[in-house]
Automatic annotation (TrEMBL):
<dbReference type="InterPro" id="IPR001555">
    <property type="entry name" value="GART_AS"/>
</dbReference>
<comment type="similarity">
    <text>Belongs to the GART family.</text>
</comment>
<protein>
    <recommendedName>
        <fullName>Phosphoribosylglycinamide formyltransferase</fullName>
        <ecNumber>2.1.2.2</ecNumber>
    </recommendedName>
</protein>
<keyword id="KW-0658">Purine biosynthesis</keyword>
<comment type="function">
    <text>Catalyzes the transfer of a formyl group from 10-formyltetrahydrofolate to 5-phospho-ribosyl-glycinamide (GAR), producing 5-phospho-ribosyl-N-formylglycinamide (FGAR) and tetrahydrofolate.</text>
</comment>
<keyword id="KW-0808">Transferase</keyword>
<dbReference type="GO" id="GO:0006189">
    <property type="term" value="P:'de novo' IMP biosynthetic process"/>
</dbReference>
<feature type="active site" description="Proton donor">
    <location>
        <position position="107"/>
    </location>
</feature>
<comment type="pathway">
    <text>Purine metabolism; IMP biosynthesis via de novo pathway; N(2)-formyl-N(1)-(5-phospho-D-ribosyl)glycinamide from N(1)-(5-phospho-D-ribosyl)glycinamide (10-formyl THF route): step 1/1.</text>
</comment>
<dbReference type="InterPro" id="IPR002376">
    <property type="entry name" value="Formyl_transf_N"/>
</dbReference>
<dbReference type="GO" id="GO:0005829">
    <property type="term" value="C:cytosol"/>
</dbReference>
<dbReference type="GO" id="GO:0004644">
    <property type="term" value="F:phosphoribosylglycinamide formyltransferase activity"/>
</dbReference>
<feature type="binding site">
    <location>
        <begin position="88"/>
        <end position="91"/>
    </location>
    <ligand>
        <name>(6R)-10-formyltetrahydrofolate</name>
    </ligand>
</feature>
<feature type="binding site">
    <location>
        <position position="63"/>
    </location>
    <ligand>
        <name>(6R)-10-formyltetrahydrofolate</name>
    </ligand>
</feature>
<feature type="site" description="Raises pKa of active site His">
    <location>
        <position position="143"/>
    </location>
</feature>
<dbReference type="Pfam" id="PF00551">
    <property type="entry name" value="Formyl_trans_N"/>
</dbReference>
<feature type="binding site">
    <location>
        <begin position="11"/>
        <end position="13"/>
    </location>
    <ligand>
        <name>N(1)-(5-phospho-beta-D-ribosyl)glycinamide</name>
    </ligand>
</feature>
Amino acid sequence: MRLVVLVSGSGTNLQAVIDGLHLGDAPVEIVAVGADRPCEGLRRAEAAGIGTFLVAPSEHPDRERWNRALEREIVSHRPDRVVFAGFMRIVDAPFVAAFPGRIVNTHPSLLPSFPGAHAVRDALAYGVRITGATVHEVVADVDAGPILAQVAVPVLPDDTEDTLHERIKTAERSLLVEALAELAG
Ligand code: GRF
């Protein structure tokens, strides 16, 4: 299974996939890592000897052309799956249609609760006692699409957004690795 992984941030989910699946005889190869901005995730890919690409929205005249440029770059690596691992951009419907049923996203809540960019903050503000992480197929609607795997994580009384997000991310990393291993068969 050839993967292109997209990141925007610290890349700890990417690192888990590199460490858990990319080495040895695992039937998974990360053929490239892409990002929308310079970030730690790209540095992790470089350190692991994986090719990288950067497609920044600021270098394209509009959202549509940025989507097409990102799409072209991904297609050139001939992936079986595209993994959004902390990729903090919304792609358009033609992008999703270019990789039908083949884009996987990880999200830090138990979808369909708390979609969007502030899932951890929103769960904390709502006062839920259990939240978690979801790995799902990407469809044109944001944070929707068939669920591939979920894990529950408790919210503790003194949690801040950061402490809760760290607890979620610990569970989320294993979840993503397991879900991709399952997809790889
Ligand atoms: C993850 O919790 C992801 O679901 C969210 O941002 C975080 C990314 O973490 N959208 P990292 O960059 O993989 O460390």
